[in-house]
Amino acid sequence: MAGYSCVKAEIIAICAADLADKLLKWDDYLRIEKNMSQHTLRAYGSDVGYFVNFLFGHLATKPSLNDLSEVSIRDFRSWMSQKAMDGTSNASRARSLSGVKNLLTWLDKQGIMHNAAINTVRSPKIPHKLPRPLHEKQALDVIQYAGMMEKHDWVGMRNMALFTLLYGCGLRINEALSLDIKDYPRDGFLRVIGKGNKERQVPVLELVENILEEYLLSCPYPNAPDRAIFLGARGQRLNQGVAQRAMRQLRVTLGLPENATPHALRHSFATHLLQNGANLREIQELLGHVSLSSTQRYTDIDAKKMMETYKAAHPRA
Fold this sequence. Notes:
2 domains; mainly alpha; hpI Integrase, Chain A
């Protein structure tokens, strides 16, 4: 993580020297002090990069700190309008605004510069999107047939173990792929480092542990405490894209819906627990949500399903 830079060299190249220097320091702040995930760093870097590129064209010169402090509400609206015309969704534009606000807030708190207009820019309205879980049978089919498309048996076992862990423990895909041998479940619990470097203990079903054990026994690479649990074909830590590709292949083969992704297994974990009587606080702890409102989205899914059942079954509906 420490070596990943969110601000690309081509963006630094189109900045005046003072802004380029502060962008690199902001990059360090996000990576080291805030310990942001690579996914968030990539998003912030892309959004701020787009904004700097916009200023470069808008001002017809390399933007400086002074230029950044003088960006007006009209300039911000012009930038947001350009993103909209490029086909960027409301959610993506809201995220872009958040990334730029993060940079400007940091510059302000450091006493470097102040922009008075940024806090008057309204964020685009984001539609209320519900998580899209799989049905229980679909989730179980994913696990059962996870290895059917792979040439090597151990790779098939790896896919099965990974998808079982996501569904059985509700992990984010990056949380599962960051696990090392030393993190292997002990006494029925798994230690997980989640967003913001927050640690949580997740209970592990015996079935999940057994499938993990089978995979590790089949893996041709030697175990070592600092070795990743999930490996790619060449023995390196498994790339998230490989797991997503395996799920896409399964989706086509099994005729699963488009929402059948590795992250959908986490949604399925939470939804199925709720449907079977678990309370929201328990699910919040298991998922590692900071805010209960993030977990409450799953009650909306249950309410929606109940309404669909009512409309289908009631003679007057």
